TrEMBL record:
Superkingdom of the source species: Bacteria
PROSITE patterns noted in UniProt: TPR
Keyword Repeat applies: yes
TPR repeats: 477-510, 677-710
Name of the protein described by the UniProt record: Photosystem I assembly protein Ycf3
InterPro entries named among the record's database cross-references: DHS-like_NAD/FAD-binding_dom (IPR029035), TPR-like_helical_dom_sf (IPR011990), TPR_rpt (IPR019734)
Organism: Accumulibacter regalis
Keywords annotated in UniProt: Repeat, TPR repeat
Membrane-spanning residues: none
Pfam families: SIR2_2, TPR_12
Amino acid sequence: MDMLIEAASQGRLLAFVGAGISMIPPTCLPSWWDINEAVIVALTDRVAPLIGGERSVQLAATISARQQSDRFPPEYQAELLAVRLGASYFRVLQCLDSERPNAVHLRLARLAAAGHLAAIVTTNFDRALEAAFRLVGAPLRVCARAGEFDALAPELEGKSGSCVLLKLHGSADDPATLIDTLAQRKRGLPVGALSCLRTLLRSSHWLFLGWSGADLDADAGYLGLAAACDSARGFTWLYRGGEDPRPSVARICAAYGGRAAIVHGELPQWLDCATGSLLAAPPSTDVDGDSGELGRQAREQVASHARGWAEQIGSTASALGLADILVAVGEPHSAIELLRAALQALPKADREDRDGVTLTCALAGKLQGLGEDAEALALYQGAAGLLDARGDNERAAEARGNAGLIYQARGELTAARSAFEGARRSAEASADDAKRSVALHNLALVHGLLGEYDEGERLFREEIEILKALGDEPNEAVAYNDLGYLLAEASRFDAAVEVLTKAVRIRERLGNDRGRAMSLGNLAKVHFGRGDLEAASAIHREVIEIFRRLGDEPSRITAVGNLAVAAVRQGQPQAAIPMLRKAIIDAEAIKRTPEGVRLRMNLGEALREAGQLEAACEVLEESERIAKRLDASPARAETLLELGITRWRLDELDEAERLFREVVAIWDALKQEARVAPALTNLGLVAQQRGHLDDALDFFRRGLDINARLGKQAGVVRGKLNLGNVALQQGRLEAAIDLYTAARELADDLKLPLERFGARAAIASTLGRQGKAGTALAAFRDAEAAATRPTDKINLAVRLDGLAELYAANDHPQIASAFSAEAGRLRAGEAPGA
């Protein structure tokens, strides 16, 4: 307390006033959570005529439950509504105003009048402080606009005049100044305001009242507290009795050391006691009526204001804003139900007007998110035609850009790129950075599918810089998520993990569980690509549980399929088969036919690996027929590839080759070169089995060249291993060693466990065939150290047995015995040297 009193005695005390102060009677303003709940109730009441009163109450309860579980932050709700509704959203925040001060407001005004309080900084919108200063008769300079902060900043150096009030987030009497959304907060405070804060941190001791410091959780640099640590005078932070400081606040306190203090108490009593030596006992503050009744009246006033606001913006805007929130809290089907009802409620002529087109595009977007691509594409195309007819070229380009996403999913990349380029040109012409970021994102996705990873990454990073400048953190997470997927495709696994981790952290903090699960799913794919199947499986299980809890059945089914594929690759196809059969039934129950195609393809692979080759062919043929009926060329090509592998396993080499060549033709027609390489590899394996080694080399080299040109380094590793196998079959042992060694070095760099082992095992066997027995045994030990699967050591034992037979047949019994002994040790599970 000594620091506080000393600063106040010098006129160098600053009070930072949070929302908790204005909740004290008789001001009785609601919390941020309360105002958000009032907004939701107002929106659901406004759409009740569309969906029924009972259903509207259910939706409000669902959203409220997420809010109360601290999984839907107020600033995220504000962000969604501000993006959808624009400036009209901020009018609802004017209910957070009062000119009825309480004892804390009045005590601060009296401290300022006595010359003890130099400044007040607040994030509150209300005008209770201004009213308190008027009642006390103390002068007060209020700054709430960027220009006012700019003017004040140079005057603060050496200032010793009247108290100044810095309203960092604006003032309720001017909605244009209000800062409430996540994007606004991420953009940061005006430059002039930051300059003022830096000066005040150096000159004043800060007293934090009614503020938990939650903003520091999202932005450790908020207010400049951390940056000013070395030069700041210090602070005292009041928490309620028994309440621990947030970790972010505790870190700031630790950095400030003896210049920071955490104190506990209740307001207004604590403030009266703490400043008792500076001021006489405060005059009584009359509170007309019971404080509980005052709080009830205040809440009713907020609810009434919110209802009036919802009435003013109308049922269409209310439905659009509420639909976005429903998707964010994991209720996409409810959002679609609401938008269909809103569209149906419009007169037929109005469905082709602005409101109708806006609802149509919003509905298409929600359907697209659930994979209902055919209906979504028809809606987008219809909307674009209506917008063209009205001369609204900008919004028509936006609708076509959304349609481009569907073309992209179908593999029609030329049409997709054309749509996205048109959207980018439109955004650039209108200087709309938000829309430009969307176009850049979509173009980056197309370049990734084309295997143009460097260009895709460049576009994603350009988009991320725009989003950071806009403060659009939700879409920043989307960009990180999709960039991570692209980097994984390019075998840049460490970089992929870095950006995907950023996406997960942002989405977790925002309470976007669905988005978090999607980013986790991409992290699992990175582990899968590296061959770390246990890590991938663990994440897939977590993702399945998240989607189950959210009731997102389509996404849960997809995640089950991913988990099953990991099980197959782990050598557990029998465990995967029932999972996939159940997932197919679940997908059909909710009419997810495209997902059923993929699940059948996965089931075919599982049956094949379980040795049920004929059953696998039946399932894969059914999958191919459905994909062909849906005109889903990418899914059909992937299914044909699996069918070709199965036919190859059945020694039906002619049919396998025909299928692989058809796969190449499909991907060539779609201009997706990156997807051609696996088919070429399989053609090479068929040729190799036939003994057509020159043809095999040609196929393997073509596949390797594609992967090398596109930067798919994992594919390069596998290509070198295949070329090494052919060289070995041709008797070119030194060439084989060179190829295996190159594969091993690259696999080590990429941290690919399966390929690291495979290359070492191949090197060891080849060295043995060269007659380098001692070097070969050491190489087998190196391969053993790289083993990650139970079957790996059995693989080595089989190779050692083969070499033992070779040396025995060539009259080298001692060397043969050494190889046999090593094989026996591996089978027995004994450690080297045992």
